[in-house]
Write a structure and sequence with these properties.
- The complex is a heterodimer of chains A (509) and B (330).
- With 509 residues, chain A is α/β, with parallel strands linked by helices.
- Chain A folds into 3 domains: 240 residues, Rossmann fold (3-Layer(aba) Sandwich); 161 residues, 3-Layer(aba) Sandwich (Rossmann fold); 73 residues, no CATH class.
- Chain A is 36% helix and 25% strand.
- In chain A, a hairpin with a 2-residue loop joins strand 7 and strand 8.
- In chain A, helix 14 packs across helix 15.
- In chain B, helix 4 runs antiparallel to helix 12, helix 6 packs antiparallel against helix 12 and helix 10 crosses helix 12.
- In chain B, a hairpin with a 5-residue loop joins strand 2 and strand 3.
- Chain B has one domain: ABC transporter involved in vitamin B12 uptake, BtuC.
- With 330 residues, chain B is mainly alpha-helical.
- Chain B has 15 helices and 4 strands.
- Helices cover 73% and strands 2% of the residues of chain B.
- Classes of the chains: A alpha/beta (509), B mainly alpha (330).
- The interface between A and B is large, with 52 and 34 residues.
Amino acid sequence: MTLEASASLLEIRGLSKSFPGVKALEGVDFTVRRGEVHALMGENGAGKSTLIKVLTGVYPRDGGTFRLDGVAIAPRSTKDAESVGISTVYQEVNLIPHLSVAENICLGRQPMRWGMIDWRAMARRAEAALARVDLKLDVHQPLASHSIAIQQLTALARALDVEAKLLILDEPTSSLDAKEVEELFQVLRKLRAQGMGIVIVTHFLDQVYAIADRITVLRDGRLVGEYETAKLPRVELVSRMVGRELTKMKAVERGTEAARHAPAPEVLLELRQFGRPGSIAPLDLTVGQGEVVGLAGLLGSGRTETARIIFGIDRARSGEMWLGGKKTAFRSPRHAIQEGLAFTPENRKVEGVIPHLSVRENIILALQARAGLLRPISRKRQGEIADEFIKLLGISTPGPEQAVMNLSGGNQQKVLLARWLAMQPRLLILDEPTRGIDVGAKAEIEKLVQSLREKGMAILFISSELEEVVRGCQRVVVLRDRAKVGELAGDAISEEAILHTIAGSSHAR
Amino acid sequence: MKPRIASQYIPLLATAVVLATLYGAGCASFHNFFSLRVLVNLFGGNAVLGVAAVGATLVILAGGIDLSVGSVIGFTSILIATLVEEHHVNPVLAILLGLVLGALFGAAMGCLIQWFELPPFLVTLAGMFLARGLAFVVRPDNLGIHHAFYAERINRDFALPLNSQVSWPFAATCFVTLFVGALWLAHYTRFGRYIYALGGDETSARLMGLPVARTKILTYTVAGLCSALAGVVYTFTTQNGDPAACVGKELEAIAAVVIGGTLLSGGVGYMAGTAMGVLILGLIQTLITYQNLNSWWTVIVVGLLLLLFILLQNVVSSLSGRLDSPGRHG
């Protein structure tokens, strides 16, 4: 291998990609060297997945060039990409669970003999491929009979079975435990030593610093920069990902004087070492009446997972939850709702509003569910409730009978909020309530949260926008890599403090 | 983890047990049941269903469904009869034409399903009405085939005499040959394995770089060919073309496939199971005839058996279901 050849394996220059209404990537440069592990980092919507999908031919690109080994390439499908030496392992194991391990490795390139699949040769080839990832198992068994970690390694073995020069791993570790991650990294180190270029997308900072040689950060579809891992302190990395430069960070005005110096509120919700393996490590958390508690952390840090175990969507496996001085554990969201909890999920399209139903029907949904089908809320009462909330939240709609899908994102969010407020909940969990809505609507939602707090509601506020968290919360619980890493209160809350907490001790590395 | 390994074979095993039990029960209950004649009739009498079920298996394995089977049988049979009897076309040519049309019909449905992302249920439902209508356009009533090719070749020369009274009909040969071919296709060709992959997880199959579009269209093409072949076999066994033939045969074929242990959701199943499923349906009919019961009892028993197998599959797939992975949100 000559010296200049080792300089760069993959060169992407000026890559652009738009989807209707969104510029997903704009003039992005990305370079991967031979024999390095390169981390691709960024928050939600940064464009990591788009970059990978364009590179592997899943989406066509709008502009820019790819060079692999100095040769211009233009893959038009995953198969194309594989044939030039780019292999991908996706976050979800994208294999066929019911087929055997051997088939999953060799599918599409099965060895043939006399016009028939040579099953024996295939088994041998699969065993050889698995040996490259230090795995030895019965390749005749169906893939689904193995753990996710083994399935992930099988996917890796499949990726290596084609003469891969560049290996892309899209969040390969999100469903693995610490030991399994270390096994995977062993394999990656071996491949790196063999001169392979490896791109890894992950949200886990510890893992990035454990394996990556260099880091490229994207934000909002643009390149932020390319860095040597060893020369980039964690706090710098985090600040670049979230787009708040430490030096330029001005103190965000915090809530009202009264809010900051409010007397210690009466605790409504208390978690004691509450957790679920794979979701969130056991944590303590309290939310008082008339208090807004923020949950801050990067994407994948366990914010939503925490909300899900509180609300009974996922069952906690450890610890206790106390609500209003009573020990409880919700078996289901229905149970949580009966106890006076409300949860507006992050992805409102999928988990929240029902697009074809009217504003009135969407608002009334949870209320009716609690009352039971046998005690219908009268049409007149429904109309009154809907009108009340349309006015209270300033939902801009031609009328309560308008289908929710015709409303703007911000107004859909308000409809969702109205649904839960109609229940008069004791505790409101807001997961990214301002994502994807315009600035004006954001301010209104923030104002509304404050007025609900003043009325004595307990609110758990999840947001990626640090500014919002700093402005609106009395206390902030900081999460990293699915564990609580700190808690800030009162005047200690600032964007900088949160960033430092997320990054961990910045002197550690 | 260990019990999961065998779990995929449980439905197939259950099918084999049911088949053996039914056959054993027949032999034990009726003194003339254990005979070559009953066995030969089992294959000959169910050849149409068997051929249709092979096609249905492939489509279902690929995660789809084909409701046009019965109509295509009717269309093919009346087309061949009309061509041979009224237009004096060489029977071999007429049969070949019928097979080609069946394959094209299947290919057209496959293209609609693949390119326009239409649900297979609806596309093949439309195909069912279309083929049935076309059958009546060809000729509104049935027509016997008296050509020498049928009378002499198919029924005499191509039949294999087993002893002085019983001979193996050509229709049964068609069924067994197709079955062996399908066995090879499903387990020893790349196309066959792509069918399994497609039915197992279409998104993954695409991301694995497998030729998803080609596989899907080709699967419906082969299924259309099988339906047409079932129509040809129908003319062999009945010496007749009938535009109203085999109404609802597709459902019988699906029943045979499910009883044979193939999951309706696709990706899991065995061709061998389907052959056993066909024989089970045939055996039930034979047993009920021997019992001198009303033939509607066949339908009831098949219905119950089907229900039993669906329940079994449900239990098996929940046993082998993967662990739920936690959400991965912010």
